[in-house]
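dumping this here before i forget
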Amino acid sequence: MVIKIGINGFGRIGRLVTRVAFQNHEDVSVVAINDPFIDLNYMEYMFRYDSTHGQYSGSVSVADGRLVVDGKEVSVYSHMNPAEIPWGEHDVDFVVDSTGVFTTLDKAGAHLKGGAKNVVISAPSADAPMFVMGVNEEKYSNDMRIISNASCTTNCLAPLAKVVNDHFGIVEA
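structure:
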Protein backbone atom coordinates (compact mmCIF):
# COMPACT_ATOMS: atom_id res chain seq x y z
CA MET A 1 0.00 0.00 0.00
CA VAL A 2 1.31 3.44 -0.94
CA ILE A 3 0.88 6.14 1.71
CA LYS A 4 -0.35 9.37 0.13
CA ILE A 5 1.17 12.54 1.53
CA GLY A 6 0.03 16.15 1.29
CA ILE A 7 2.42 18.99 2.12
CA ASN A 8 1.14 22.26 3.57
CA GLY A 9 3.94 24.83 3.46
CA PHE A 10 6.69 24.37 0.88
CA GLY A 11 9.47 26.07 2.79
CA ARG A 12 12.62 24.31 4.01
CA ILE A 13 10.85 21.45 5.82
CA GLY A 14 8.11 20.92 3.23
CA ARG A 15 10.67 20.70 0.44
CA LEU A 16 12.89 18.35 2.42
CA VAL A 17 10.00 15.98 3.23
CA THR A 18 9.07 16.00 -0.46
CA ARG A 19 12.65 15.36 -1.54
CA VAL A 20 13.10 12.44 0.85
CA ALA A 21 9.76 10.94 -0.18
CA PHE A 22 10.72 10.99 -3.87
CA GLN A 23 14.30 9.85 -3.43
CA ASN A 24 14.05 7.12 -0.87
CA HIS A 25 10.56 5.71 -0.49
CA GLU A 26 8.52 3.87 -3.09
CA ASP A 27 5.84 3.21 -0.46
CA VAL A 28 5.20 6.95 -0.01
CA SER A 29 3.80 9.31 -2.62
CA VAL A 30 3.51 13.10 -2.37
CA VAL A 31 0.25 13.81 -4.19
CA ALA A 32 -0.49 17.46 -3.33
CA ILE A 33 1.30 20.57 -2.10
CA ASN A 34 -0.29 23.72 -0.73
CA ASP A 35 1.50 27.02 -0.27
CA PRO A 36 -0.29 30.34 -0.79
CA PHE A 37 2.97 32.32 -0.85
CA ILE A 38 5.03 30.50 -3.47
CA ASP A 39 4.48 30.72 -7.22
CA LEU A 40 4.59 27.31 -8.96
CA ASN A 41 7.63 28.19 -11.09
CA TYR A 42 9.54 29.39 -8.05
CA MET A 43 8.44 26.24 -6.21
CA GLU A 44 10.03 24.18 -8.97
CA TYR A 45 13.22 26.26 -8.84
CA MET A 46 13.59 26.01 -5.04
CA PHE A 47 12.98 22.27 -5.12
CA ARG A 48 15.52 21.73 -7.89
CA TYR A 49 18.26 23.94 -6.37
CA ASP A 50 18.46 23.53 -2.60
CA SER A 51 21.15 25.66 -0.98
CA THR A 52 21.81 23.06 1.72
CA HIS A 53 21.10 19.72 0.09
CA GLY A 54 22.27 20.56 -3.41
CA GLN A 55 20.64 20.08 -6.76
CA TYR A 56 17.87 17.47 -6.92
CA SER A 57 19.23 14.40 -8.68
CA GLY A 58 15.99 13.53 -10.47
CA SER A 59 13.84 15.49 -12.90
CA VAL A 60 11.72 18.48 -11.85
CA SER A 61 9.43 20.51 -14.08
CA VAL A 62 6.08 22.28 -14.29
CA ALA A 63 3.27 21.04 -16.52
CA ASP A 64 -0.43 21.87 -16.64
CA GLY A 65 -0.35 23.75 -13.34
CA ARG A 66 1.34 20.88 -11.51
CA LEU A 67 4.80 20.19 -10.17
CA VAL A 68 6.26 17.14 -11.93
CA VAL A 69 8.94 15.25 -9.98
CA ASP A 70 10.55 12.20 -11.55
CA GLY A 71 7.65 11.97 -13.97
CA LYS A 72 4.99 12.01 -11.22
CA GLU A 73 2.50 14.88 -11.23
CA VAL A 74 1.86 16.64 -7.91
CA SER A 75 -1.19 18.89 -7.64
CA VAL A 76 -0.43 22.36 -6.30
CA TYR A 77 -2.77 24.66 -4.39
CA SER A 78 -2.54 28.08 -2.80
CA HIS A 79 -5.21 28.18 -0.08
CA MET A 80 -4.77 30.15 3.13
CA ASN A 81 -7.39 28.10 4.99
CA PRO A 82 -6.46 24.40 5.41
CA ALA A 83 -10.15 23.41 5.37
CA GLU A 84 -10.30 24.57 1.73
CA ILE A 85 -7.42 22.40 0.52
CA PRO A 86 -8.99 19.43 -1.32
CA TRP A 87 -6.95 16.70 0.40
CA GLY A 88 -9.92 14.36 0.08
CA GLU A 89 -9.81 14.55 -3.73
CA HIS A 90 -6.32 13.04 -3.51
CA ASP A 91 -7.16 10.50 -0.78
CA VAL A 92 -4.38 11.96 1.40
CA ASP A 93 -3.42 9.70 4.30
CA PHE A 94 -1.13 12.20 6.04
CA VAL A 95 -0.73 15.96 5.71
CA VAL A 96 2.63 17.27 6.82
CA ASP A 97 1.88 20.78 8.02
CA SER A 98 5.20 22.58 7.85
CA THR A 99 3.87 26.13 8.00
CA GLY A 100 4.51 26.71 11.69
CA VAL A 101 1.05 28.33 11.82
CA PHE A 102 -1.42 25.48 12.39
CA THR A 103 0.15 24.02 15.51
CA THR A 104 -2.83 23.26 17.76
CA LEU A 105 -5.34 20.44 17.51
CA ASP A 106 -8.04 22.91 16.52
CA LYS A 107 -6.03 24.70 13.83
CA ALA A 108 -4.43 21.54 12.40
CA GLY A 109 -7.87 19.90 12.53
CA ALA A 110 -8.91 22.10 9.60
CA HIS A 111 -6.92 19.72 7.38
CA LEU A 112 -9.31 16.94 8.40
CA LYS A 113 -12.21 19.10 7.19
CA GLY A 114 -10.42 19.27 3.83
CA GLY A 115 -10.43 15.47 3.69
CA ALA A 116 -7.04 14.52 5.14
CA LYS A 117 -7.07 11.39 7.28
CA ASN A 118 -4.19 12.41 9.60
CA VAL A 119 -1.95 15.41 10.26
CA VAL A 120 1.68 15.62 11.34
CA ILE A 121 2.67 19.06 12.60
CA SER A 122 6.36 19.82 12.07
CA ALA A 123 6.52 22.27 14.97
CA PRO A 124 5.92 22.17 18.71
CA SER A 125 2.26 22.12 19.72
CA ALA A 126 0.51 23.44 22.79
CA ASP A 127 -1.93 20.52 22.87
CA ALA A 128 -1.19 17.85 20.23
CA PRO A 129 0.75 14.76 21.33
CA MET A 130 4.45 15.27 20.52
CA PHE A 131 6.81 12.56 19.39
CA VAL A 132 10.55 12.47 18.84
CA MET A 133 12.04 9.40 17.20
CA GLY A 134 14.45 7.64 19.53
CA VAL A 135 12.84 9.22 22.58
CA ASN A 136 9.11 8.46 22.89
CA GLU A 137 7.76 7.10 19.59
CA GLU A 138 6.58 3.94 21.38
CA LYS A 139 3.76 6.01 22.91
CA TYR A 140 2.26 6.67 19.46
CA SER A 141 -0.97 4.85 18.68
CA ASN A 142 -2.80 4.55 15.36
CA ASP A 143 -5.92 6.26 16.69
CA MET A 144 -4.09 9.60 16.99
CA ARG A 145 -5.23 11.70 14.04
CA ILE A 146 -3.13 14.81 14.76
CA ILE A 147 0.37 14.67 16.20
CA SER A 148 3.40 16.92 16.45
CA ASN A 149 6.92 15.89 15.51
CA ALA A 150 8.18 18.68 17.80
CA SER A 151 10.78 21.06 16.37
CA CYS A 152 13.93 20.58 14.34
CA THR A 153 15.96 21.67 17.37
CA THR A 154 14.19 19.12 19.57
CA ASN A 155 14.75 16.37 17.01
CA CYS A 156 18.48 17.16 16.96
CA LEU A 157 18.98 17.54 20.70
CA ALA A 158 16.48 15.19 22.36
CA PRO A 159 17.96 11.82 21.29
CA LEU A 160 21.42 12.87 22.50
CA ALA A 161 20.02 14.31 25.73
CA LYS A 162 18.09 11.07 26.33
CA VAL A 163 21.27 8.97 26.04
CA VAL A 164 23.20 11.30 28.35
CA ASN A 165 20.35 11.34 30.87
CA ASP A 166 19.81 7.56 30.76
CA HIS A 167 23.49 6.82 31.32
CA PHE A 168 24.75 9.71 33.44
CA GLY A 169 21.78 11.85 34.45
CA ILE A 170 21.12 15.49 33.73
CA VAL A 171 20.75 17.66 36.79
CA GLU A 172 20.00 20.94 35.06
CA ALA A 173 19.53 22.03 31.47
